[in-house]
Design goal:
The protein is α/β, with parallel strands linked by helices and 244 residues long. The protein has one domain: Undecaprenyl pyrophosphate synthetase, CATH 3.40.1180.10. It has 8 helices and 6 strands. It is globular and about 60 Å long.
């Protein structure tokens, strides 16, 4: 099947799991695994853009990841800084818009400034949107949206009756992007780990045993092909979908 015959999802999200286990299998440190994972990020972004995916969202660092060993967290922050300083120029050259979603207040002032600079550099780009979820949690996302709406009610800007699924969605992360179509998790675990809880309501899930550093273009294409074979009903019957 050629790529032109496949129904390409507009918005793909990936839980990039398995860097540490990959490193252990190689007899190397977890740091090595995270560095190998950066290479996979680069190739995945290239593949997604080539396929015509409109939005790619990658789970880089969850709000729970602060519980990891301090040395590993430091390495992850250093890698994040590296990507911002070295890779964003490449993204900009390829017309990709870059943004970070999550609670950035826990990051260093320098990292926050670099994030802002990277977002501003690529803001006007019209190609694929690459969103990196960092210090992100799905429950935080929904809570933050609810808090913003509560403040508007308290300030008499809106009424309680004005709060609908649509208005709450407007205050969640990724509200300006296409609906999430496909959520991929590498590493073999069958859970979504508090990632995009609101956005994944009707997304198709794809789980693979491949560890993140081993997730190559062929495996990405396999996930896309599986998505293409799914019947997405959105609450309707199969017969209703078929008649359209």
């Amino acid at each position: 099947m050629s790529k032109s015959e496949i129904n390409i999802p507009e918005h793909v999200a990936i839980i990039m799991d398995g860097n540490g286990r990959w490193a252990n299998l190689q007899g190397k440190t977890r740091v090595t695994g995270h560095k190998a994972g950066v290479e996979t990020v680069r190739s995945t972004v290239t593949t997604a853009a080539k396929l015509g995916v409109k939005a790619l969202t990658l789970f880089a660092f969850s709000s729970e990841n602060w519980r990891r060993p301090e040395k590993e967290v430091t390495v992850l922050m250093d890698l994040f800084m590296f990507v911002l300083t070295r890779e964003v120029k490449r993204l900009h050259k390829n017309n990709i818009r870059f943004q970070v979603i999550g609670d950035l207040s826990r990051f260093s002032e320098k990292l926050q400034k670099n994030i802002h600079a990277a977002e501003q550099l690529t803001l006007q780009n019209s190609g694929m949107v690459l969103s990196i979820a960092a210090n992100y949690g799905g429950r935080w996302d929904i809570t933050y949206a609810a808090r913003q709406l509560a403040e508007k009610v308290a300030n008499d800007e809106i009424t309680v009756a004005d709060i609908t699924e649509s208005t709450l969605n407007d205050y969640t992360s990724l509200a300006d992007l296409p609906e999430l179509d496909l959520l991929i998790r590498t590493g073999g675990d069958l859970r979504i780990s508090n990632f995009l809880l609101w956005q994944a309501a009707y997304a198709e899930f794809y789980f693979t045993d491949a560890l993140w550093p081993d997730f190559n273009e062929q495996q990405f294409m396999k996930a896309i092909e599986v998505f293409d074979q799914r019947e997405r009903r959105f609450g309707q019957t199969g017969e209703q979908v078929t008649k359209k």
